[in-house]
Amino acid sequence: MTGLDPHEEKTSAGTVQDAIPGLLAMLSGKKRVELENFAMEIGDLEFWIPTGTVAAPTGSTTPARVKPTTLFAETFVPSSEEFVGRIHEVRLGATKSEGGSRSRSLLIGGSTYPPFVSADHPATHPPVFALDVFDMAVPLSKVLMENVKDVINDPAEWARMNVKKYGADMITVHLMSTDPLISDATPAAAARTVEDVLQAVDVPIIIGGCGDPRKDAAVFCKVAEVADGERLLLNSVTLGMTETKTLDLVARAAKEHGHAVLGFTGLELNKAKELNRRLYEYLPPEDIVMDLTTVALGYGLEYSFTIHERARHAALMGDTELQQPTISASTNAWAAREAWMKMDKKYGSRGLRGPLWETVNALTLLLAGVDIFMMMHPAAIRTCKDTIRMFAEKDAPVPDGVARWATMKI
Amino acid sequence: MSEREPKKTIKEISPIDVYKLLPKTNCKECGEANCMAFATRVVNGELAVDNCPPVTKEEYRVNFSRLEDLMAPPVRTIVVGTGDRTMKLGGKYVLYRHEFTYNNPTPIAIDVSDDLPEDERTARVRAVADFSYNYIGRELRLDAIAIRSTRHDPAAFASAVTAVAALTDLPLILCTYDAAIMAAGLAHIRERRPLLYAATKDNWKEMAELALRYGCPLVVSAPHDIALLRSLVKTLVEYGVVDLVLDPGTAVEPGLSGTIHTFSQIRRAVFADGDELLGYPLLGTPITAWLSPEISHELIQWKEACAASMLLSRYADLLILHSLEGWVLLPQLIWRFNIYTDPRKPVSVDTGVRTFGSPGKDAPVLITTNYALTYFTVESDIKAAGIDCFLIVVDTGGNSVESAVAGRYLNAESMAAALNDNKIADIVDHRHLIIPGLAARLSGETEEASGWHVLVGPKDSSGIPAFLKAHWPPKNS
Lengths: 410, 477
Known about the structure:
Number of helices of chain B: 17
Mean pLDDT of chain B: 94
Shape of chain A: globular
Largest sheet of chain B: 8 strands, parallel
Strand content of chain B: 15-25%
Oligomer: heterodimer
């Protein structure tokens, strides 16, 4: 083949590319091509070296190459991906001037970029932590019980301890006693508990129901009324509430009294979208948070991780039905036997294993973009808060000398 | 020289793309019905190209190489070790797990330093090799040993390497920045194809020579400097070293945020920008937690554990840890197992009755949910204890017991219906149903709805053997 001088071809941009289809057609079916009068600079060559699973025997297959003697100088420009979507901001809690009685309100959500991929794109609003309080004595793992046994029968005191001692940004009051299968406490009684907690602490409050769509609706409506203007997060509304025709009751009560709702779905993105669509009929997106379900590490955390990654990615790519901030009940980590069970001593004490389990659960979902964490163990909360603080520092120090790990004495 | 079209992503490759390059003889040597079926399984990541025996023959050399090129993952696969005990690093096709199953679960290596007295060293190597945890019927294990030169002495390193290699057939990683020390260690175990740690801006030439001479994969280290990492990769590839692993540096605290950012940026550069110089497996070293002046070992271990778990989620293809404590390792091994499962795997299992052992008419009847992880946990506990029983799997919409009870997916009616639909009354001659402890509050209602006696079982299925010992056969029957 003659007349193919790469230098000539390169004189006008695109010529080589334009010629490729023709060249390929010419070459098709040929097994061997001889080049005549062919000149080329080494820089024009692109070596493609297949990565075999076993290294080639010493230098036998590669033709004598010129080994570089100095380091090439490459640069790095971070990927400049752009995202059209944005997560809505939701304000939780209300100060006096905002119509409530909290000392401060919290803004969550607002992400415009995948979580924690670059210092140039810090979280719009760092994730916050809601600590759990139950309105009745609940069975808890021994390790969790140690920290709360003195307050277990007093939700207000429990809430106060969570804020003062453990730095809770928010409190979740789980109104378990309202469960018709447990003590079927009345909505009025539940509302009194909520009022006690609102009195005891000045942080924003999440109201946890019992899971019965009818009862929860009755409780949420009553609580919404007595806490008018406090901007509670009602946890949760479900598609089940559409069957019992109670979703609209709760959504209207939230709207009327200035609260936000948490839409709960079980690891199904289409269900989450459907529930959001239903809710948009009553509420603006600024009033809606999503719970996509948090499963314990070892019991399906990977489903939770992946659904959160998918939801956030889709939202940032422009899916308007998923652009709500998310919440994770990371306390669920304690459902895993590895968290609470006494095990052979080679697996360590559950005093360490349990809190670490909750920590890993939360850190994993933190990386997937969750905005609010419902948690329980103080050590887990502290670790997650420290981690978020580290991510929030724009110019977090990069310690030099990490390479010493290879040769340090331990 | 290859005229390279823009490489197709794994989602864009169709079975036809693969089929076109196969022999198309439908010889069935691969075990599949025909070449198209084989191609489909290759595209799904279930079979590799070289699972087709004919295509690896000389006559198909060109097609085979094009197939390998077609199916080559953007993050290359690097093999460490030889024979049965190899570990594969990287081989990633996607950034997000929901796009395509992650390949090659991140091996976890534990370090052994060459300053350990012989008895301690032996005990440590044995502990690494023997560590295991039974998780839903699988043995989760550690994968490799990283031998570190802390005495800066070639002879000491060589002797430690020889001793460790004699104790275990686990893949090895040799850690030193000194090429002379590396050579001393390597000379004794060249046939093991260890991973060499590491080439830096100061020693790359000497390390490259060793990697070439011994045919070993090489780690390229440039802590928190991606430009330097790219420079080293480019230089080393040009030098002829193609089996590379990247060490972008791991800082545990402070600096973990920078580490997560670095790992993320590298992977995004590969998948968003097609950066080939960064298309290699990533090494994470949570062991750097031990550089901390912190006195409490527990605190260091805690930080090492947190960093390791975050790096498992954020693209590490190989981890080196120091902690051998079970509480540190359990969450890593389980999380590693979990995120490398197929994301398309359904959350639920089939409903119906499962039979364990050889249950008679008086055998216990237990009930659980169809959430896959719940089911596999219960199954594994029943099997491990060798219990003869029937287990009813009821449709809870793939929810675990706790959420199914809370969400009313598991209720008295659904359990009564399951007893009925599965004709349990014909299988056993008693009327006792054991329900999960977490569903205790449904016991009264369920007795009413089904007419069966309800026994409230343990909250965790690990308690089933003890429960049956104490409560079966039921006293009042």
